[in-house]
Amino acid sequence: MLKKIQIKILDLLSVLLETGEVEVLVTSLCDEKLWPTEIFKELYNTRWGVETLYGTLKERLNLENFTGKTVESVRQDFYSTVFISGIESVLTGEARKKLSDKDDKNKYHQLVNKAVSFNTIKNHVTDLFFGESDTEILLEKLTRLFMTNPVCERKNRKFPRKRRPRASLNYHKRFKKIVF
Q1: What is the helix (H) or strand (E) element at residue 110, kind and residue range?
Q2: At what angle do helices 114-130 and 135-146 cross, to 10 degrees?
Q3: Partner of 150 for a Cys bridge, out of 7, 85, 110, 165, CB 3.0 to 4.6 A?
């Protein structure tokens, strides 16, 4: 006797955005009783921080452009990039708090500029891990540097997306990894 078994592993959900644009979400949370369709728009918004982290790893830290071709070098690049990203999050905490404390004086909430913070870490990484100087003084210096040139968070801005032509498939092969 033959039986046909259907296994449903993905759902495609269409969500209407405030702009009138329809966005299609893919999910493996297929049980309608546990995960009603209505919650996915809000759930997607809460996931946005994770998505922007992936963007930071790929774009700002150039994760996909590896320094070598062996499995070991790819692993080393991946883990060092994630490590540096984690260090940046920890070290910028005090600067984020100080910028947040200044919110009542500013029109917009200010954030630590990632370009500034990663550059500061790159320039002080040996002092941070191998330096002989007082760690407390170094951390205060880093916090001051992290607070230079903050970016403003402007919520609820609505601008149409600029559609760019697709990049060449060999884009990553043409650029050497920026090792920090």
Answers
A1: strand 109-111
A2: 170
A3: 110
Name residue 22's beta-bridge partners: 16
C-beta atoms surrounding 88 within 10 Å: 20
115-130 pLDDT, tens digit per residue, is: 999 999 999 989 988 9
Which token pair is 24? 């299609």
Nearest by Cα to 56 from 122, 117, 141: 117
Residues with Cβ within 8 Å of 176's Cβ and at least 6 positions away in sequence, in order, are: 65
pLDDT at 172: 53
Amino acid type, 81: T
Q: Give 99: exposed, middle or buried? Use CB within 10 Å, 0-12, 13-18, 19+.
A: buried
